[in-house]
Design goal:
Blueprint (H helix, E strand, L loop, with lengths): L5 H7 L6 H26 L5 H20 L6 H15 L1 H8 L6 H7 L5 H27 L10 H25 L28 H29 L4 H27 L2 H25 L1 H5 L4 H34 L2 H31 L11 H24 L24 H33 L5
Helix pairs in contact: 2-3, 2-4, 2-8, 2-9, 3-7, 4-7, 5-7, 8-9, 8-11, 8-16, 9-10, 10-11, 11-13, 11-16, 13-14, 13-16, 14-15, 15-16
């Protein structure tokens, strides 16, 4: 395609998305990246200088903003600054732990909970100001470069994908909470040791189990806010009926997860922990499906008659595969949370059936996608999902055997979870086992979500009217 400047593009058509919508996508995505980067750094060493952690997080944020601004047609500096301001406001979820007084013991927190410190507030405001300035600078740099025609991006659809991605760290940290027996490290179900969760001091996160359980709640708060903004965006401007309904159902699912997580702690119930783990993966799959139906490809798909016919059997196979994965998910959750030997044997035996179903369904997706190869608006969108679930199911199968080899179950299984008063005497965390089990858990979530996304495409293609 011949290159041309954005100025000439803009003269023929207006900016396709309001600045606020583009900035929201950039800001929330940037905060998500900052949160993940800082979480990983502090997981490795919670004694890292906070300035170093913030500096590297801001560098990651600036890189993401610069990459996103490549697809903004004009006013990049304004969009970047607005994204920084929105992102800065959202980042208070993560910055709150630095804004309060920093006691050295839990006992001191009783008298200092939820009390702000002037130095902490100044630090947080400095980070927010830095995000605005870095966003503006990234936009200015984009404006100074020779610019070319960019893809016409549907920023609301891209935001839906950002929301879906925000659930990934939540699922990963939740998996680590289970794998490290950290589920009861915080005694209260809504607050954290009497402190509003987002204001729990960083100085009290040295204990790894408290850090994991608390950060799980923080990522949950972030995912909830991101989902609320998704619903607002769906109803704040013209949108199709299906994405709107799915965004509302998604929000209800996130709320249910939050309530169930709180009850799981207050009731100290492993049964609720099992339901909480299962529902989390279904909510993530729904979020991915919402991203799919928001895309312009979904609305514009016009497959050939042959692809429509072929997708009908693919649709059935993907439905069966999704049901199989759901059953397998329940067996796995019962094994992890209830330490059920019967569930473990069922999980192992049924895995061979699920792998076979996924391989066949993935092959059918690839076959349907090849029918309209190279045809704009054809059925080719389903093909990458078929290849992806093939790769994920093989990785998941391998990780499953690795997790089985490293974990203990039945009479040799885990003891009762240590409570907040037992952390100092709790058994040390088996790091290798935790990483293997959590990886198996996370890839399982990705496999289910990708299979559901493929199913959505099969349903869409099969429902298209034939040309004849």
């Amino acid at each position: 395609m011949p290159t041309q400047t954005v100025a000439s593009i803009s003269s023929s058509k207006p900016l396709s998305n309001p600045i606020l919508g583009v900035a929201t996508t950039i800001g929330v995505a940037g905060v998500l990246l900052m949160g993940v980067v800082s979480w990983v750094m502090l997981l490795v060493d919670r004694g890292l200088p906070i300035g170093l952690t913030i500096g590297i997080s801001l560098l990651a944020y600036t890189t993401l903003v610069f990459l996103f601004l490549r697809n903004v047609e004009s006013r990049e500096s304004m969009v970047g600054a607005a994204g920084g301001l929105i992102g800065g406001a959202v980042s208070s979820i993560f910055l709150g732990s630095l804004m309060t007084k920093q006691p050295t013991t839990i006992a001191e927190l009783e008298s200092q909970a939820n009390q702000f410190s002037s130095g902490g507030i100044a630090l947080a405001l400095g980070v927010i100001a830095g995000m605005v300035l870095l966003g503006w600078a990234a936009g200015k740099l984009r404006e100074r470069k020779t610019r070319y025609a960019t893809k016409d991006i549907d920023w609301r659809a891209r935001y839906a994908w950002v929301v879906a991605l925000s659930y990934l760290p939540l699922i990963a940290v939740g998996g680590l909470v289970t794998s490290t027996e950290s589920g009861l490290a915080v005694p209260d179900s809504v607050t954290t040791y009497g402190s509003i969760s987002i204001l729990f001091p960083m100085s009290l996160m040295d204990e790894i189990r408290i850090y994991l359980e608390h950060s799980h709640r923080i990522f949950g708060t972030f995912a909830g806010l991101a989902t609320i903004l998704l619903v607002v965006r769906m109803f704040g401007s013209p949108a199709r009926f299906l994405p709107r309904v799915m965004s509302v159902v998604l929000l209800l699912g996130v709320i249910a997860q939050g309530v169930m997580g709180a009850l799981r702690v207050s009731e100290q119930s492993q049964g609720l922990a099992t339901l909480h783990g299962v529902l989390a993966q279904f909510v993530f799959a729904l979020a991915i499906a919402t991203g799919v139906v928001c895309s312009r490809k979904w609305n514009a798909v016009a497959p050939s008659d042959e692809a429509v016919d072929a997708s009908k059997s693919t649709r059935l196979l993907l439905m069966i595969a999704t049901i199989g994965l759901s059953i397998q998910l329940v067996f796995g959750a019962m094994t992890r949370h209830l330490d059920s030997g019967h569930a473990l044997m069922s999980h192992i035996g049924f895995s061979f059936i699920v792998v076979l179903l996924i391989i066949i369904a993935g092959a059918k997706c690839i076959k349907v996608g090849k029918i309209d190869r190279g045809v704009a608006g054809g059925a080719g969108a389903i093909r990458p999902y078929g290849a992806t679930i093939h790769g994920l199911v093989m990785l998941q199968f391998t990780l499953g055997w690795g997790a089985l080899a490293m974990t203990r179950t039945g009479e040799e299984g885990h003891a009762a979870l240590p409570t907040s008063t037992e952390l100092s005497t709790a058994a040390s965390i088996r790091v290798g086992e935790a990483i293997m089990a959590t990886s198996h858990h996370l890839i399982g979530a990705l496999l289910l979500a990708t299979t559901v996304a493929a199913l959505m495409w099969a349903l869409r293609i099969a429902s298209r009217p034939k040309n004849g």
